Amino acid sequence: YKYTVGQPYVYPKNSLSYTSNFMRMMFATPCEEFEPNDVLVRAMDRIFILHADHEQNASTSTVRLCGSSGTNPFAAIAAGVACLWGPAHGGANEAALNMLKEIGSVENIPAFVQGVKDKKYKLMGFGHRVYKNFDPRAKVMQKTCYEVLEQLGINDPLLHVAMELEKVALSDQYFIDRKLYPNIDFYSGITLRAMGFPTNMFT
Asked: Tell me: the pLDDT tens digits for 131-189?
């Protein structure tokens, strides 16, 4: 990330936790001292934990399959990262964020929902192959999202769209029958954007 924005690399400090160091190495500059924000560090901790491997997801399976050929760990992990890049896996939170941007405002939600039913649009950030009912991680991520936005004083219009879309989807029989409940990606994209991460880095 530092290379892409033309800034020098920031080396870690042993006095900081893993996540505090991660935030510092992302956002610090040599000309001033970086003070980790406890709320943002806690949010990043949750993101790391909640997005961690659960069962045989696509990237985990890819790493294991690649490693089974006897390749080196770097190659196996690189293969997993490449798999994670896809919009149906690691790119899901970016896809959900792009969907909210396309909806634009709360007033456009009814037309978008009808478009989903008519198979004109895809509903991103809803449903999960493992969590067949509600994604338990989504509740934690929703709370974390509110905490980050409040801490930073951000009034993100996309959050209003997300909240209304969630409300509509949870009360509409079409989505209930198909068990399309919000998943973690529905809120993590808004959270990461608020924290300063470019959307092309979400994966």
From this structure: 666 778 888 998 999 899 999 998 888 888 988 898 888 888 988 888 888 888 888 88
The CA distance from 43 to 181, in Å, is 22
DSSP state string for the chain: -TTTTT-------TTS-HHHHHHHHHH-BTTB-----HHHHHHHHHHHHHTS--SS-HHHHHHHHHHTTT--HHHHHHHHHHHHTSTTTTTHHHHHHHHHHHH-SGGGHHHHHHHHHTTSS--TTB--SS-SS--HHHHHHHHHHHHHHHHHT---HHHHHHHHHHHHHHH-HHHHHTT--B-THHHHHHHHHHTT--GGG--
Active site residues: 128, 185
**Which residues, including other chains, have CB under 8 Å from residue 144's CB and lie 6 or more apart?**
42, 43, 46, 47, 187, 191
